Amino acid sequence: MPALADRLNIIKMSASTMMSVKSRELAAKGVKVIALTVGEPDFATPVHAIEAAHQAALAGNTKYPPQDGIPALKAAVQRKFKRDNHLDYALDEIMVGNGGKQIIFNAFMATLNEGDEVVIPAPYWISYADMAKVAGGKPVLVNCPQNNGFKLRPEDLEAAITPRTKWLLLNFPSNPTGAACSRAEMQAIADVMLRHPDIWILTDDMYEHVIYDGFEFCTIAEVEPRLKERTLTVNGASKAYAMTGWRIGFCGGPRALIKGMINMQGQATSGVSTVGQAAAAAALDGPQEFVAERAEIFQARRDMVVEMLNAAPGMSCHKPEGAFYVFPNIAGCIGKTTKGGKLIETDSDFALALLEEKHVGTVMGAAYGMSPYIRVSYATDTESLREACGRIQEFCRELS
Questions:
Q1: What gap in Å lies between CA 112 and CA 374, rounded to an integer?
Q2: Whose CA, among 223, 231, 310, 320, lies 20 to 30 Å from 205?
């Protein structure tokens, strides 16, 4: 059999995908599994967005789209950035991709040379490091400890920068911790970056509207306009509008960078589904009240999950500012044995045993660059969350 590419050796299946697969396999055997593994809102896509897609299809908008996005969606994205983030992007400074993930992949492929470094605060979304590696880059992970709210400290960022640094990647609110930066905290990061003018900044703002307790979201180019000319502001329809399966991401950034990213996308996938783009344009321009209403529901779920996990022996759960994840520390469970006889030496052991013995799917913290933690997604219905947290409490009480 002919050989596969060496690059497959530097990437791996996403741990959240792996745990989701294991959860589905158990469920297929008739086991009542509660999977808290996937970051996908359990709400429906807005009806007006679905109707816009339907009308676009009926109108014959089903041909190849422009590589950078249809004009109607790019104009809607332009209005969104101005309305929500006070950022002015020209239409040729905006592009649309197949989800936020392709936008980030395009950016790395268009800029990274072999050995260039990408500074990534940890814990981090699983795909960031692997995408950097595929593009020839080297991930440089910066620890963001729980005692600092899982946020990036300016002095740690400064220490991580070298002459090979090409990108700083920010994701606040964060997957997997839900941590978000205040305006002052973001300004402190910006102040560091002003001292390093040759570094690109990528901010993944996918959870922008999933924030709690009156927290005010901010993005770095808004906080520090002098950084706008080298900042790529990434967002999409997936989280705020419950449109994960529509695969619509978008970004605003410097014209030359956007042009390079469009060229890269042209060789990978070309343009994005026309009907999906029509739906996303309707979501961005349509009623926005339901976005905040859904965030209130997520906040109530967060409060319940944090309270119940903090009541589990051996667990310590930080209360995040946004997103729909918590990242509890399980240090008090390490070294113990489960009721089923499994020794818990790592957070991977914990997550796998929890799934096997109590049928609750979570993701091991090691996959996100920090142990001993697990990631719990609370983007599911409240009753399922309550039962799952009860099972986790029982699992921890039975450790010996």
A1: 31
A2: 310
* Rounded Cα–Cα distance for residues 134 and 158 (Å): 25
Quote the pLDDT of residue 358: 96
Residue with the two structure tokens 């990631």? 375
> What is the rounded distance in angstroms from the CA atom of residue 292 to the CA atom of residue 315?
30
Are the C-beta atoms of residues 216 and 84 closer than 8 Å to each other? no
Alpha-carbon distance of 143 to 169, in angstroms, equals 13
**Residue 25 CB partners (closer than 8 Å, separation 6+):** none
All domains in the chain, ordered by first residue? 6-44+290-397 (3.90.1150.10), 47-285 (3.40.640.10)
180 within 8 A of 320, measured Cβ to Cβ: yes
Partners of 306 in the β-ladder: none
> Could you read off the pLDDT of 314-360 as tens digits, one per residue?
999 999 999 999 999 999 999 999 999 999 999 999 999 999 999 99
Token pair for 267: 């060789």
Do the strands 231-236 and 200-204 form a parallel or antiparallel pair, or are they unpaired? parallel
Six-digit token string for 304: 């319940």
DSSP letter for 2, please: P
The amino acid at residue 131 is M
Q: Which residues contact 4 (CB under 8 A, 6 or more apart)?
A: none
Region for residue 106 given its phi and psi (left: phi exceeds 0; alpha: psi -120 to 50; beta: otherwise)? alpha
- Asked if 162 and 128 count as a contact pair (C-beta separation under 8 A), the reply is no
DSSP classification of residue 245? G
Question: Coil, helix or strand for 261?
Answer: helix
Q: Let me know: does 230 contact 63? Beta carbons within 8 Å.
A: no
pTM of the model: 0.95
* pLDDT of 324: 97
Could you say which residues of the chain have pLDDT below 50?
none
* Cβ neighbours around 307 below 10 Å, total: 12
3-state secondary structure string, 305-337? HHHHHHCCCCCECCCCCECCEECCECHHHCCCE
d(CA 166, CA 124): 18
Q: What angle do CA 284, 131, 240 make, to 5 degrees?
A: 20
Say how far apart CA 248 and CA 236 lie, in whole Å: 6
Report whether 37 contacts 361 (CB < 8 A): yes
What is the per-residue pLDDT for 116? 98
Radius of gyration of the chain measured on its C-alpha atoms: 21
Which pLDDT belongs to residue 31? Answer: 80
